[in-house]
Design a protein that fits this description.
By secondary structure, the chain is an alpha/beta fold. It has one domain: Rossmann fold (3-Layer(aba) Sandwich), CATH 3.40.50. The chain has nine helices and seven strands, in the order αααβαβαββαβαααββ. It has a seven-stranded mixed sheet. α7 packs antiparallel against α8. Bound molecules: S-adenosylmethionine. S-adenosylmethionine binds next to α4 and β2.
């Protein structure tokens, strides 16, 4: 599994655009739903905040929203923190390095974009989802995007072709193929729904984004 440290962190912003078809659209569609639903005083929890993409975009949409940025990679969170300072939004963001613990204020929405497929379904995925649930207000919504199990035999091949069209070189494609086969923990839709239910998310996940293996759900 990628470590998201050192050059994996510094090169993340340019690499991710070649690895996830529709990356920008996924973020845009997530943001518009938050814009349509959240009040001005909302607090948004971003799990696996990475280099800060979600928060930087959302902070522009509403200058009053507050954020918690959580990640298990200090290098990624350091990059995010520098960007928040550049954007003048550090005072609106609480940084949280490491496993998610109880937040001081329960969040009105949570984002977990392109994170859970790195977490094994051996109790670890459940722990992440339960921690998210514990940090949400009663009516809060979770936006979760993940690589899912392929639904056709040709989906992963098509995905690698899409990455090539996005500029991923030969070595990168081989690396990605290996990662897709061996380093991710994708769920099928049934297991995903079951896990959410086990973690206290009672309404079924609704699909709002689909780009080959990557699916985005509102829960
Ligand atoms: C592919 S990046 C996604 C970053 C950001 N959400 C985005 O859309 O650009 C995955 C991030 O999840 C983080 N991560 C991996 N496992 C995690 C976990 N169990 N809890 C929180 N963050 C985790 C990684 O360190 C990395 O920053």
């Amino acid at each position: 599994m990628p470590t998201f440290t050192q050059e994996q962190a510094t090169q993340y912003d340019s690499r991710i655009l070649r690895l996830v078809p529709g990356y920008e659209l996924l973020h845009q569609l997530t943001a518009t739903q938050l814009q349509a639903t959240l009040a001005d005083n909302a607090h948004i929890l971003v799990v696996g905040a990475g280099s800060g993409k979600e928060i930087i975009e959302l902070a522009k949409i509403n200058p009053r929203w507050q954020f918690t940025a959580q990640d298990t990679s200090r290098d990624m969170l350091d990059i995010a923190s520098s960007k928040f300072a550049e954007q003048g939004i550090s005072n609106r963001v609480t940084l949280h390095y490491g496993a998610l613990e109880k937040l001081k204020h329960k969040a009105d929405a949570a984002l977990c974009l392109l994170v859970l497929h790195f977490v094994e379904d051996n109790g670890d995925k459940k722990q992440v989802l339960k921690s998210i649930k514990n940090n949400l207000n009663k009516d809060a919504t979770l936006y979760l995007a993940d690589l899912m199990r392929p639904e056709t035999q040709f989906e992963r091949d098509a995905q690698l072709l899409a990455c090539a069209q996005l500029g991923l070189g030969e070595a990168g494609q081989q690396h990605m193929r290996n990662q897709l086969e061996n380093e991710f923990y994708p769920l099928d839709r049934m297991r995903f729904s079951e896990l959410l239910h086990e973690c206290g998310f009672s309404s079924p996940p609704k699909l709002y984004f689909k780009a080959l293996g990557f699916s985005g759900y509102v829960i």
